[in-house]
Amino acid sequence: MSAASSGRDGRALFVATILTGSFLLFLVQPMVARMALPRLGGTPAVWNSAMLVYQALLLAGYAYAHRLARYPLKRQAQIHIALLTAAAVTLPVGLVALRPPAPGEEALWAPLLLALSIGPVFFLVSAQAPLMQRWYAAHPAARAPWALYAASNVGSFAGLLSYPLLAEPLLALHAQSWAWSAGYGVLIVLVAVCAWARRGIDGREAEQEIREPIPRRRIVLWLALAAVPSGLMLATTTHLTTDIFAMPLLWVIPLGLYLLSFVIAFADDRRWARWFTNAAPIVVLFAGGLAMSSRGNQGLSLVFATVLLLFLVCVALHSRLYETRPSPARLTQFYLVMSAGGALGGAFTALVAPLVFDWVWENPLLVFAAAALLPRVAALDWRTRGGVEPGLARILVATVLIFVTFCAIQIHGVFAEDGSAGERFAWTLAAALTGLALYPWRPAFLTALLALMIAQGGFETIDASRQHLRTRSYFGVYTVRDYPKAHLRTLAHGTTLHGQQLTDPKLRDVPISYYGPGSGVGLILDNAPEIFGRGARIGVTGLGGGTLACFARPDQHWAFFEIDPAVVRYSRNGTFTFIQDCAPHARIFIGDGRLEIANFAPASFDLLILDAFSSDAIPLHLLTDDAFQTYFDKLAPGGLLLVHISNRYLDLEPVLAAEARKRGLASAIRDDEPGEGMFVPSSFVVLARDPARIEAVKRASAPQQWTALKGEAPRAWTDDHSSILPYIRWSNLLRKVR
Q1: How many CB atoms lie within 10 A of CB 47?
Q2: What is the pTM of this model?
Q3: Are 110 and 80 in contact (CB under 8 A)?
Q4: Angle made by CA atoms 524, 527, 529, in degrees to the nearest 5
């Protein structure tokens, strides 16, 4: 009996196929990004570049599915299975050999690397969700196929979460790649079984239902409803990791919530979608009002507010997208337009915004756009109840808007003076709850939202842009501030201090912040003649403000390695003068420190200092065993490696202890707690092949100031296998919550 005459629609089979494909699709995304770490580093922009590639490939896959649907189902199956099988020759998943990017080329090079490495299989796997829905809907007894898209996003969500929680901690990269390849083989089998289940069905009959083209205005609406959540998801990622809470694990949260929103928005049961949509306006006012805040000292409350805002906005806009869906005959076209909108939103955030904005201005802009697109909520439209006259309604709207503005002024006063958090919360809640009355009048509602944005950090953020205090590059947002009363200039990457210089001409050559006389780096560099003798060769990965240059002596040879040309310009244009005052002959190499050091001859350095940070996180690829092999190849036999591991949220001491054990290195750590003043706490670890070299460091700087490493990790990190999950300082996170 043919499938056409069977009463069973095979829903379970198609759900299983869609779940498998989507699981693989979103498992491979972080896996490939993880593979690229040694070449790309770990900044939010790298993840955004990866997401942009995935969105472009997803769009191509949906276009392929839409084009393929014109053929009879048997022909569709033959083409799709043949291409899936052909793409298997690119497995196991790995990175192609591509020359390193020249400075400034990273924004284009990173997407190219990822597209060439994962493109064929990602393209074809991405097509299976709309294609399998189309095949499922071709059965005469099939129910509406839209819930299968919700199932697709369940698989995507599961794949995304399983990577940091299971795959990365338990499996090396090569094992992950082979496991994914096995899953790809299972997917091919499932697709073939689905094709067999639809044998005898033409698959083009639904095309006869199409009579009129979809209005252009409706297509534009679909594009907007897809683009804003997509762009906001990436903007939230950048905003979180740049200005609020600099932890790489946060990258997975916005994408996970974005995927979960589709599960709710496209579900057959509409209750959850309605509840979240009804709650969206109050959260947009309450949490969206924080979208212009660039302060990083507000703790996890701002993190929670930001991710809740993203989730509810995504559910609301995707629900509106679902409510405007076409008939199943237009299924692939609908998904194609939706994918195009997602790609447009991603391109705006990942490509356009870094070029035209000095800060993550795309975040408040997209929040504002989302507020403009929120669907109508009948429960909030009080105009339809009580017979309110239009004139009285306008008076009420004006009164409410005046009160919201008054609340915003009070909030700004509390915010500017770092006043009571409770008082600020109370005024914000009053403004948000009152502002709900403005929801039926969208211009007034948007005005209230803008007032709250400006009140809660907007003045400060706008002023920083107006004064040109910030620079934005592919690698992040840098802010330079002067404090005339303290005679101080600071450099921050996101929320993390990356350099300070005293502006008093008599003191501007004094190293401060992490580099005081009691810090590990201060102790070693102050005593370099005793430890290394004359003419020491010193390399520093990470330039920052260039503070370490003022430990240089005339007979020494210094080299700095800095990945971001924007940071180098600060030392060359006089913003920070450490280099020109203290080490004018130091060489500065622009590029990834690990890759640049690898170009040197063996035994080129007596001391290598790892002082590179991306906001608050040291790039993981600089701390793997493969990286340490490079460093010690370039160190002289008696050379030292000094690693700066100061970090609010990661305990890296066990990682270095495991590396020291694996390589048989002698080691010690200096935890400096200088108290209040111009110096801040720091932790430096020194490693050497010869224990006598560590003893020389201790003799030169007092033995009691250096201690043994504690808490050795089970294994050293490698390019193939590493996970930061076991080394998160959970107590610091909980303290932030409290």
Answers
A1: 25
A2: 0.81
A3: no
A4: 120
